[in-house]
């Protein structure tokens, strides 16, 4: 059984994962703009040109690397985290961080119901964490 302090520590690490994943999603989306304009005559050329486009574009590459750091942190944290906490914390909070970062970048994130939903997700995740302590 995992102790309370370790559970809380894992929850904090999973929050960091969600922040890395969600915080970088809008930047990855913005950094990949223009890829749809690449048109080549066969699938292999198309794939290679798209890879070159993405990996020579720092607006895409930096958020992508940070996003992958979140994946590494998630993998490491899973070794000691309770899966019944790991999945809801990361998936639901990733959505919230994506919405917040998108809003900060000028994207439209929805109506007041979206914000109410975010608050409810935070409450739900908090209840999950508290129930495990």
Which percent range describes the beta-strand content? under 5%
- Which structural class matches the secondary elements? mainly alpha
Q: What's the total count of β strands?
A: 0
* Total count of domains: 1
Residue share in helices?
over 70%
Distance between the termini: 11 Å
Weakly predicted, low-confidence segments = none
Family: Belongs to the TMEM234 family.
Keywords: Membrane, Transmembrane, Transmembrane helix
Protein name: Transmembrane protein 234
Subcellular location: Membrane
Secondary structure layout:
Blueprint: H1 4-31, H2 43-55, H3 58-78, H4 83-104, H5 112-132
Describe it:
Its main location: membrane. It is a multi-pass membrane protein. This is Transmembrane protein 234. It comes from Lottia gigantea (Giant owl limpet). With 133 residues, the chain is mainly alpha-helical. The protein has one domain (4-132). It has helices spanning 4-31, 43-55, 58-78, 83-104, 112-132. Helix 1 runs antiparallel to helix 3 and helix 1 (4-31) runs parallel beside helix 4. The chain is globular, with a radius of gyration of 18 Å. It starts with a helix and ends with a helix. The model has no long low-confidence stretch (mean pLDDT 90).
Comma- or semicolon-separated keywords:
EmrE-like; 133 residues; Transmembrane protein 234; single chain; mainly alpha; membrane; 79% helix
What's a quick, concise take on this entry?
By secondary structure, the protein is mostly helical. The protein has 5 helices and no strands.
